[in-house]
Automatic annotation (TrEMBL):
Keywords: Hydrolase
InterPro entries: AB_hydrolase_1, AB_hydrolase_fold, AB_hydrolase_sf
Record's signal peptide: none
The protein's name in its UniProt record: Putative hydrolase protein
Superkingdom as given in the UniProt entry: Bacteria
KW Iron (keyword) present: no
Residue span(s) of domain AB hydrolase-1: 53-294
GO MF terms, alphabetically ordered: hydrolase activity
GO cellular component annotations of the record: membrane
Length: 309
């Protein structure tokens, strides 16, 4: 498993990749937020349309490191790739008011980043919560601007049992003695969803989720984020997001679903394919929620999809 991304990078028709650039931008309410950019490795021929830039939006408690492999692959194929840390995640400022860890607030942060980066036309790759942002962005950005959407294990209907599973761990075990300790916990809680992972894969995932700080290995998000899910129970109504998905019918959509996902069901994927005139589905074998975007086959699927934009 761990060697697959390297195979993908070697096999890509690439030019040497420029170094990754870290940047910051200001939220409308004054927080300093952080992102990473992978500049395109090669220019398109003068007669060709340049590859569309790709904006990567992570999951609920995740950060830009989740996109390291796919971003490097796409930049080597000529794409400009940008990934954002939401407020309270990664290297972005924490918000003193946990109520601002809300989709409607983060939407404005994303819009401010798009304006700063002068993204006139782009595709969105959204993992889990990032895909929810992509759905909402269809109301704000026409197809001439947001040209395509890749939804990584997320759709208009979310299985609540997965939300309860996430809520049970969010904000807990924030401080650890080592990445190996985190890897063991990940394997214990998610092993059934990623049955093909070996120890090296769990350790690799642990390095994406946490970093060393003051002699400990700390999860890279504000534990106050857990308040967003703390009040959910089985009686909480599931929001109807299908109208947002229907708004994307004027642009191509690629849906990635982990074979063992407990959040995005096969039935939801089936309806997504039936109700969209230009949607495609890729099932990522041996993975759950959410596919880690490391393997060469998924890289190729995303790259081929973007060539159609």
């Amino acid at each position: 498993m761990a060697s697959a991304p390297q195979e993908a990078l070697v096999n890509a028709d690439t030019a040497p990749a420029p170094p990754v650039v870290e940047f910051t931008w200001q939220s409308p309410d004054g927080l300093t937020l952080s992102g990473r950019e992978w500049p395109a490795a090669k220019a398109a021929p003068k007669s060709a349309t340049p590859p569309v830039p790709v904006l990567c939006l992570p999951g609920l408690s995740r950060n830009t490191r989740d996109f390291n492999e796919i971003a490097h692959f796409l930049q080597c194929c000529g794409h400009r790739v940008i990934a954002l840390d939401y407020r309270g995640r990664g290297k972005s400022d924490w918000d003193p008011d946990w109520r601002n860890y809300a989709l409607t607030v983060e939407d404005k942060d994303i819009d401010a980043a798009i304006a700063k980066l002068n993204l006139d036309r782009f595709a969105v790759l959204g993992t889990s919560r990032g895909g929810l942002h992509a759905l909402a962005m269809g109301l704000r950005y026409p197809a001439s601007r947001m040209a395509a959407v890749i939804l990584n294990d997320i759709g208009p209907h979310i299985e609540m049992r997965a939300i309860h599973r996430i809520a049970a761990t969010l904000g807990h075990h924030m401080k650890n003695d080592s990445h190996e300790e985190i890897a063991a916990k990940l394997e214990h809680t998610l092993g059934y969803q990623f049955p093909g992972f070996v120890k090296a894969d769990w350790l690799r995932l642990a390095h994406q989720l946490a970093s060393e700080r003051d002699g400990h290995v700390v999860m890279d998000y504000d534990p106050a984020l857990a308040h967003q899910l703390a009040s959910l129970d089985d009686s909480t109504p599931t929001p109807d997001l299908w109208p947002l998905y229907e708004k994307l019918s004027d642009r191509p959509v690629l849906v990635l679903r982990g074979e063992h996902s407990d959040l995005l069901s096969p039935d939801t994927c089936r309806r997504m394919m039936e109700s969209h005139p230009n949607a495609a589905l890729k099932t990522v074998p041996g993975q759950g929620h959410a596919p880690v975007l490391w393997d060469g086959e998924t890289h190729k699927t995303i790259s081929e999809f973007l060539k159609t934009v």
